[in-house]
Amino acid sequence: MSTADFKPNGLGDLSVFQSIFFEEADEHLAVIEAALLRAENAELSAEDLNAIFRAVHSIKGSSGMLGFADITALMHELENLLDLLRQGDRPLTNRDVDVLLRAGDLAKTKIEFRKGLQPEAPDASALEAEIRELSAAKHGVAGVPSLRSFSVQLGPLVGPIEAGELQTVFEGFEQLGKVERGEINNVEGGHVAFSVTLAGSEADLRSVLTLILPAALIDVRRCDAQDAGQGAVEAGAPAPGTELPSKVGTRSSAAVDELFVDPAAWRARNAEHKSAPPGHSEFELFSAPDKRRPVRTAPGASGPEQTAAAPAASDSNTIRVAVRKVDQLINLVGELVIIQAMLAQTASTLDPVLHEKLMNGVAQLDRNTRDLQEAAMSIRMRAMSLVFRRFPRVVRELAGKLGKQVELKTVGEGTELDKALIEKITDPLTHLVRNSLDHGVEAPEARVAAGKPAKGTITLRAFHHGGNIIIEVADDGAGLNREKILAKARERGMAVADTMSDQELWQLIFEAGFSTAAVVTDVSGRGVGLDVVRRNIREMGGRVEIESTPGVGTRISIKLPLTLAILDGMSVRVGKEIFIIPLCYVSESLQPKAGSVSTICGRGQVISVRGEYVPVVSLSEAYGMRGGQQSFEDGILVILEAEGGKAALPVDELVGQQQVVIKSFEVNYRRVPGISGATIMGDGRVAMILDVTHIVGRKNSRLKQAA
Predict the structure, then answer these.
(1) Which of 64, 147, 606, 645 has the fewest CB atoms lying closer than 10 Å?
(2) Do residues 615 and 605 touch, judged by C-beta distance below 8 A?
(3) Are 570 and 677 in a shared domain?
(4) 527, 561, 595 — which closes off a domain?
(5) Between these two residues, 532 and 414, which has the higher pLDDT value?
(6) Are 433 and 555 in contact (CB under 8 A)?
(7) E strand or H helix at 549, and its extent?
(8) Percentage of residues in the chain having pLDDT higher than 70
(9) Which among 331, 354, 379 is the end of a domain?
(10) How far is 640 from 622, CA to CA, in rounded Å?
(11) CA-CA distance, 500 to 497, in Å (whole number)?
(12) Which CATH number goes with the domain that contains 618?
């Protein structure tokens, strides 16, 4: 059955519920992976094990509600295994950790399929069989757990339950175990009572029953000898000592999942949710059991109570908002900033004495606008932990593949970055971490021979510096080999010299196809990864720098703006035009002396700055502008620095430093080399934002070819 035909409880369009599920499932899967990666030598704390179980159970309940039977079935098998581990029936092994991690990956792929991002759903049968094999370890060959008995009472009913729906539930339970029907007073204000014996937990039983009734109208009590007199247990986790469903006779555990996705069970009347108890939202009534109340933990868990809800899902102090709405708000704030700048520009021409009230109002507007701008931008800011948390898994698996011992350390996980940049920085960081692990950190025997610990260290660090964020990937490995890089560059016919500085030489490893690996493997050797890093960082308006010491290690630093919407820039005048230079690329400004500029081989001009020759880039020549200074000595040179190279930009005037709202030049016009965007100045004129990495890189490349 397709989800398009699935309309639970007459709620109609499921897209809103699916989007909530997708977000929460991503959070739960992240919790699972982070907890598993904290396992040292296959030892997992009771707190982490319970967190994993709750996350799996939450995904199972929500996916069942939405009719995602394949995800529900996979989570159901995981619950079986996790319950055995929680109860101490078998120890956690490295194989368990590997299987649980693979199951998380598979669940992510299944969710991507449900989002429409994958062409077909992945086959989980082999992995589910492997999980069942691990779950059967306690029970021997038969693998049949004990049965439990529950007494169930539904009501008081706000209206009669449709006979077909009630029959569907009874028949489903009869396939899993034994059902004894009691008093059935299926009328408004009446009750439906029955007892059921099956190989499932109370949580599974409640999950099925919430398909036809709100959780508040369901009373489930354990009535077998094991837990007699214990009373109802909070839904959302099994009672202590209970087990989750496995195979019963020849009947597969997937039978309970059939109840989750039976469309007949979802035909509830509007009266049910119109008569909902106060304080319940429409979604809560028809979701899996209420997860907000405390749940008893397994023996050995720390603390008397733990909450069963994911932090982001149940926090009443947060609200989920579509990204497009946030983007629209930020765009409007940007327009407001531009209008405020225009008003300030106009007010500056007036007499401050005659227009004192107007001046005070404009000043107050300026302060409030800046505060509003910062508040709006903060909505898009996300912690770097969202990126960092994926790398323990990357390091663990790659280190195992390469036979290396590596510890990953993260610093500054709370440092915030714009959501758009968070999404774009993940891929470059992945390449850098893999490169450090493969090329940087040595094998254990080589490290011991060099007097180092057998286990290497890779450190991910993020911190704010001025109006930018710095992200570092550092390792304590062998460092970059200068001679090896020079030899490889000459072999590829690249223009290099023995006198090149380390910074210039290190930048060669970012060239497309450049690799010092002797053998091409599935990890490295094709020279693709670091080229992707530099290209992606450039697109984000950032820069990459490398520091390396032989035998000590390498540190790669990425410098990014905090957001792609606002830029700290220096406005300069060339002729009659105003240009914006991103402030992070400005090294210094100076007025050249007569005769300090010279020409090299007819290819371009250079200026000597403290013994270093820096190429000169003329915007007047590049863009055919008129009206600029006729000689460099009459103007100012702005020294730009990007990716190990420098360039001198002649300008007529330094107008000032300011924050500007970036407008996409490519979206509104077309791509222009050397221009990364545009902005609207206070006087209403459009100013181009220079693409400094393109300008510096192109000029330095031409000079190297000439040399």
Answers:
(1) 147
(2) yes
(3) yes
(4) 561
(5) 414
(6) no
(7) strand 543-549
(8) 75
(9) 379
(10) 17
(11) 6
(12) 2.40.50.180
Q: Is residue 468 part of a domain?
A: yes
CB 229 within 8 A of CB 68: no
Domain span at residue 685 reads 566-706
DSSP per-residue letters across 38-66: T-BTTB--HHHHHHHHHHHHHHHHHHHHT
Quick one: tokens of 571? 């406005």
| Consecutive H or E run containing 583 | none
* Cα 271–Cα 273–Cα 276 angle in degrees, nearest 5: 105
DSSP structure string for 634-682? GSEEEEEEETTEEEEEEESEEEEEEEEE-B-HHHHT---TTEEEEEE-T
Instruction: Read off the tokens for 15.
Output: 């897209």
The CA-atom distances, in angstroms, between 161 and each of 103, 164, 172, 216, 679 are 37, 8, 16, 15, 62
State the pLDDT at residue 5. 41
606-615 in b/e form (b: 16+ CB < 10 A) is: bbebeeeebb
Q: Encoding tokens for residue 116? A: 């429409």
Write down the pTM of the prediction.
0.57
- Using CA atoms, how far apart are residues 293 and 312, in angstroms rounded to an integer? 15
Question: Which residues does 700 contact at the CB level (< 8 Å), separation at least 6?
Answer: 615, 645, 646, 647
Which residues, 6+ apart, have CB-to-CB distance to 533 below 8 Å?
428, 431, 432, 510, 544
- Assigned domain for 654 exists: yes
pLDDT tops 80 at residue 306: no
CA distances from 81 to 129, 141, 397 (A): 12, 16, 22
Q: Which of 421-425, 480-484, 494-498 has the lowest mean pLDDT?
A: 494-498
What one-letter code names the amino acid at 421? L
In a domain, 660, yes or no: yes
Tokens matching residue 122: 């992945």
Q: Which residues pair with 600 in a beta bridge?
A: 604
In 3D, which of 196, 200, 197, 218 has the Cα closest to residue 254? 200
Q: CA distances (Å), 407 to each of 99, 457, 458, 495, in order?
A: 22, 5, 6, 38
- Domains: count for the chain: 3
Q: Is residue 571 situated within a structural domain?
A: yes
Q: Please tell me the predicted confidence (pLDDT) of residue 449.
A: 92
Distance from C-alpha of 564 to C-alpha of 381, rounded to nearest angstrom:
11
